Amino acid sequence: MFALRSTARATARANIARGMATSVEVTTLPNGVKVVSTGSNSGIATLAVTVSGGSMYETSSNAGVSHYLRDLAFQSTGSRTAVRIAREGENTGTQYSSVSGRDFLQYKAQTLKSNAPYVADVLTEVVGDSLLEDWEASKQNERVSQDLAIIAQNDEANLVDDFHRAAFWGSPLARSPNCLASNVGSVNGAEIRAFRDSQFAASTTVVVGVGMTHADLVEAASKHLSSLSSSSPSVPATTFCSSESFVPTSSPNADVMLGVATNGMATVNDFACSLVLRQLFGGNGSSVKWASDASASTVGAAVASGTSSPFKVSGFAALYKSNGLVGTHISVDGADASQAITAAGKAVKDIVAGVGISENFEGAKQKALLGLVAESQEDITSCLSSQHFYNTASNDEVMTAVKNLTVEGFTSTVKASNFVLAARGNIDNVPRLSQL
To answer: What's this model's pTM, rounded to 2 decimal places?
Structure first.
């Protein structure tokens, strides 16, 4: 999933928080759609339908189609107009949303428990029977342009895209989940419908409901998703490319991402190692630090040794089914970038090699375990969606793997010899990979 720091959090937190939810029920419809539900002690129901899609499944001819498909969520369906969906949503206090990433599309809703059956019917119909009319598609041009204008101001989001392009150059995961500005207006309804029909397969569709009865969720999924194709869409091959990206901007700071490729969630051990590595690289980070502050991570201490100005350091992880990127995000005064990033580069390479990590290894494991605890009902919905969409290990299995992980086992799994670097801002003094 997208959103680097939240990716590891969302894909990892597949557990059911004590007192927040009850046992999980899973039903697989005859065509392969998976329906997952659990009860809740709150008065709220949260729902999500996750389907295969996203920018990695696009081609040069339809680039941006998943962005349009995301923005077309909750438009007209076979039995409802967009106006009706919006008005009835307001009347029931329901919040609808949609999100797309490189490898998925997700449609979400939050409502009162009493409205859950109706909302489940709407949500599954939006996925299974959206009309995606040509005129609706053309109306999204302005909205997509507005999306891109907002994203253009988000340096971190753009740095994430830079990092993926440097890591997976020429491969599907290099594609941004956002439409190219040059393609706005060229994506049409026929392309959107064709993409939907080829990607929304039953075998890769997961319906999750937290706080509603399993029977109601199965009924809605059976009604609207039984016609989805039972064949699985082909997954494009992805190749890792050790590379670098430099984009100058007017910012006085240098924002740098430095990291390595992992096997993502391929096995429970790969998953556990990625989570612990993220913590060793800085975890959730902290507020702005000065060099005189105590630094909470090895990378933070390294950056502090190269600057006298305030800086930020945090770890990130973008984990996919069998690929992943884990690294550190550093924001530092551009004038100090050479010494600070050089020192950080040595720290990153030492961590991957297992050099000097024994002192911080147990703490990194504990923080990874903490990240496996759901904090809200929405977290639980996201976690269950991720677990069943990616067919990952259960939360108990991941936690056990993290607890049992040793330094030796960690270093034998994280065998990165090739690194990736992306930098934006005042990059004149940022060293190249060959200099680290």
So the answer is: 0.91
Highest mean pLDDT among 279-283, 354-358, 428-432: 428-432
Phi/psi for 156 (5° steps) reads -65, -40
Residue 304 makes CB contacts below 8 A (sequence gap 6+) with 289, 291, 293, 295, 311
Using CA atoms, how far apart are residues 204 and 403, in angstroms rounded to an integer?
Answer: 31
- Phi–psi pair at 213, nearest 5 degrees: -75, 145
- Residues 63-98 as b/e (b if ≥16 CB within 10 A, e otherwise) read bbbbbbbbbbbbbbbeebebeebeeebeebebebeb
Owner of token pair 């939360």: 395
For the record, the structure tokens of 289 come out as 């630090």
Q: What is the DSSP string of 98-138?
A: EEE-SSEEEEEEEEEGGGHHHHHHHHHHHHHSB---HHHHH
Structure tokens at 56: 């990695």
The two structure tokens encoding residue 125: 């119909």
| Type of residue at 410 | F
- CA proximity to 385, closest of 6, 61, 107: 107
**Is the model's pLDDT at 88 over the cut of 50?**
yes
Task: Give the per-residue pLDDT at 364.
Answer: 95
Nearest-angstrom CA–CA distance, 132 and 119 = 20
Phi-psi region of 120 (alpha: psi -120 to 50; beta: other; left: phi over 0): alpha
Question: Counting beta carbons within 10 angstroms of the beta carbon of residue 113, is it exposed (0 to 12), middle (13 to 18) or buried (19 or more)?
Answer: middle
What span, in angstroms and rounded, lies between the C-alpha atoms of 187 and 75? 17
Band (pLDDT 50/70/90 cuts) for residue 290 is low
What's the one-letter identity of residue 88? E
Nearest residue to 261 (alpha-carbon basis) of 420, 152, 83, 404: 420
Alpha helices in 354-422 (DSSP H): 358-370, 377-390, 395-404, 407-413
In whole angstroms, give the CA distance from residue 355 to residue 288: 27
